[in-house]
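[Solved] Which block belongs to which protein?

Original post:
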Amino acid sequence: MVTKAPEDGYTAEPFVPERGGLPALRRAAAGCRGCPLHRDATQTVFGAGDAHARVMLVGEQPGDQEDRQGRPFVGPAGKLLDRALAEAGIDPGEAYVTNAVKHFKFTQAEPRKRRIHKAPSLREMTACGPWLAAELRVVEPELIVVLGATAGKALLGSSFRVTQVRGTVLEEEIHGRRERLVPTVHPSSVLRADDRESAYDGLLSDLKLAARVLA
């Protein structure tokens, strides 16, 4: 009889502790094998920030720098996000930042070549959902800022389109909790934009709406 590996089940549920705060969740997540992404990633990149934050920012997945350092939003997109948050009137130090998927998914032509980001599948996002549910349960934010299409699909379903709802305030049930959400683009899309200044202004406008919701 062949025993299935934990990742074949595509769920993090068995790895999530029933009780404990963020430190307990972070320790447990380090050993998560709820989907195959753990095999190639350097480490789990769990959420970080204020455990009692009023605002939680949810992105897609760790990037190359995040995978190496073990913290979310430490690369160029994270620096841009911190700048935009501060300009919008939200103290980055008082926020909680995390990703829908906790392991870096990438393609690599050959060893030692640059690792190219690859979008996680809906199955991988769903597998990682119990971690995000646990973070929401512990932090209990007043507002979730949804950063990009992948985060939106993880939280709101596969029909989510960031272009249709960005810069609006949504009220939805997420993992058993009634949540308010402000969707916007992922800061990495600003860095890739042809007109970076205009793209940044759009992100800033959405974050200013989030700041007004929190006021």
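(Second protein starts here: sequence line, then its structure tokens.)
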Amino acid sequence: MIRVLLADDQVLIRNGIRSLLDSEDDIDVVAEAADGRQAIALAAEHRPDIALVDIQMPVLDGIEATRQIVADPRLAGVRVVILTNYGLDEYIFRALRAGASGFLLKDTHPAELLQALRVADRGDALLSPSVTRRLISEFVARPPDVLAAAGMEPLTNREREVVALVAHGLSNDEIAETMVLSPTTAKTHVSRAMTKLGARDRAQLVVFAYQSGLVSPRDPSPPNSGTG
């Protein structure tokens, strides 16, 4: 079961999402929060797999709630997915810097939301296509970060290649196919790269890859990425 905490100050929104999630056999809504402070407390109490968090909430906003959840070592297994009406760049970057594992807009199709939760539960990066475009465009205007590039030095050549493929949006299975590896080996390389870089999840690997210049927004997509 994927255990989910819902955090949104609008009761109708929470009820609608809960109704959708409750219809799935593999998803269980364990708690609901109406503000960021409640979200933090309920995350500590229930230890969900995923906290689905709105950005604009009273008492404490979703980004600060995300930052505190991510910073709590007791909640290391909780992945925060931002769900919001606002696709503004400032929110995207603040949420990712706070440690969010994903960012979805509320106009996401219900089937896509369900799939997104399953993707996040597997540990994959999760960003709406429009969010991904904004994230990449942000790095087009920036030169590679020297400190970020130095941080890549502990990676082996194979791990660098894997991180680049993660940045292009490939899943572990697609990485395995592209590099002619077993899925288990591909997953091991991804895990080792995350450990060496101190990345909480694949979303942070993507950011590190662009910040360091390991991949460029203008790089062609690799085979099997499905991005065309």
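Accepted answer:
You had them paired correctly. Confirming on the second one: The mean pLDDT is 83.
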